[in-house]
Amino acid sequence: MKSIAISGSPRENVGKRDAKELRYLGLVPAVLYGGATQTHFSVSAADLRAVVYTPVVHFIDLDIAGVKSQAIIKDIQFHPLTEQIIHIDFLLLDEKKPITIEIPVKLTGTSPGVKVGGKLVQKLRKLRIKALPSQHLDAIEVSIEELEVGKSVKVSDIKLDNLTITNAKEDTIVSVTTSRALRQAEQEAASGKK
């Protein structure tokens, strides 16, 4: 899995006034959980853009005043009006502990159902995967080569080694439905036979 380096500065004071001052300076208050103690620090809002505003999942190589650690984003709080990041939580990665993160779904191939006029409907764009950090993937590839009109690929159809999908087994990932044009063509063909 890809990783991005972000550096942070330890926070002297923790509180609303301090957080407000940090945001005014273009910084985001942050907390690193998962270690022996919580680490309060701040990171540049500009550095977070490459990690937050992307469908790609990244591990983050944090450097907080020379102390290096690898983490993932656990939670982000946005301002309700401006959509600015006002707080971010990171979770320290431990190679012996499995973590659950959402991984993007990547569709591969061409559906024969779409070729004959069906409509491709992707219901899940991400799947929740539980695995050790070293076993996580950048994306989960789902083949649509066999997808005819009226057929679908469900979570239970996906088999991954060393990874557990925590979504409901009956959830549909992608399906091919009858499009309006195909339905109309079928009706015209049926009425033409009479």
Automatic annotation (TrEMBL):
Pfam families: Ribosomal_L25p, Ribosomal_TL5_C. CDD domains: Ribosomal_L25_TL5_CTC (cd00495). Residues 99-179 form the Large ribosomal subunit protein bL25 beta domain. The keyword RNA-binding applies. Residues 7-90 form the Large ribosomal subunit protein bL25 L25 domain. GO terms for cellular component: ribosome. Keywords: Ribonucleoprotein, Ribosomal protein, RNA-binding, rRNA-binding. SUPFAM superfamilies: Ribosomal protein L25-like. InterPro entries: Rbsml_bL25/Gln-tRNA_synth_N, Ribosomal_bL25/Gln-tRNA_synth, Ribosomal_bL25_b-dom, Ribosomal_bL25_C, Ribosomal_bL25_long, Ribosomal_L25_dom, Ribosomal_uL5_bac-type. The keyword Ribonucleoprotein applies. Belongs to the bacterial ribosomal protein bL25 family. CTC subfamily. Part of the 50S ribosomal subunit; part of the 5S rRNA/L5/L18/L25 subcomplex. Contacts the 5S rRNA. Binds to the 5S rRNA independently of L5 and L18. This is one of the proteins that binds to the 5S RNA in the ribosome where it forms part of the central protuberance. This is Large ribosomal subunit protein bL25.
